[in-house]
Amino acid sequence: MRHCNQPGRPPRDEPARHLRVTGEDLAELPPHELSYVTCELEATHDGPHADHLGEIDRDTQLWVQWDGDRYDFVRLAPCEAPAEDGDACSLFAGHDPGHSWEMRDLLHG
Question: Which pTM does this prediction carry?
Answer without folding.
Answer: 0.79
